[in-house]
Predict the structure.
Amino acid sequence: MLRVLIVEDNDRLRLALTRGLEAIGRARVVQDCASGEAALEFCLSLAQADSPLLPQVTLMDVRLAGALNGIQAAIALRREFPRFPVVFYSIQDEDDYYRDFRRSGILSHYAYVRKSNYLLPEMILPLLQQALDGRSFIDPEIEQRLDQVRHLDENDPMSLLEPNEQVVARMLAQGLTNEQIAMKLGFRDKRTISSTNGQIYATWRLSQSATDEKVARTRAALIVQARQHITWDEDGVAYTTNARGELEPYPV
C-alpha cells in the first residue's frame, strides 16, 4: 500500500483526491495539508518519532496556502529527505512557478503535470509510483512552458547589468527622471544616475547608433518592459531574436 501525502489548498479537491486514491485500494493517504509548511512539519514530526506512517511520496499542488509554493515546499522537503518523491500538478501558468522549478535542481523522483490533463486518481496513481521508483516525467505542455521560460531567462537583458544598474533601469522604465531616481536611491548628485544610464545604454548597444539620449532612454525602457533584447536598425525598425536565434520584427 502506497503511503501518500497530499498537499492541496482547496479543501474540496483535497478531500476528493483522498477519497479517490484510497478507493482504488493501492494507496493510503496518511495526511493531507493545505500548505507546504504544514507538510514539512508533519514529515519532520513523524521522522523524529521514527513513525512507520512517514509518507513515501507526495502529491503537491504548485499553488498553496502559506508562504511556500509547491516547488519551494518540495525543495524544503528534499533538504530533509533527499530525493523525496513528489508529483506536482497545477492549473497555474505563471512564469515564476516554472522559473522556480528550473532553479530547483530536481532531477529524478518526480512528475510535473497539468492538472487538467491528469484529473482522475487512476491517472495520478501511476505517476506517484513512477516517482517513488526514481523516474521522472514532465507533461509535454509543462515542458513547452519550461522551454519558453528558459529562453526568456537566457535572453533577459537585465542579466547583463550589475545589480545597481538593474535598479536604475527599472526606475527609468517607470518614467522617473534622473533627479527622481537619484532622490529615491539617496544620491545627492544626479550625475551618478546619468553615468549609470550611460553604462546601461552601452551594455545594450543603444549608444552605438546615432541617437540622442532621449531616444536611448526610451529604447532602454522598452527593453525593460519587454524583458528581451531589442535592436534597432538605421531606419529605426526594431527586431528581437526568436527561439531559433533568428531576428524577427518586434511586435508593435
In short: The first helix runs from residue 11 to 24. The mean pLDDT is 91. Residues 2-154 form a domain with the Rossmann fold fold (CATH 3.40.50.2300).
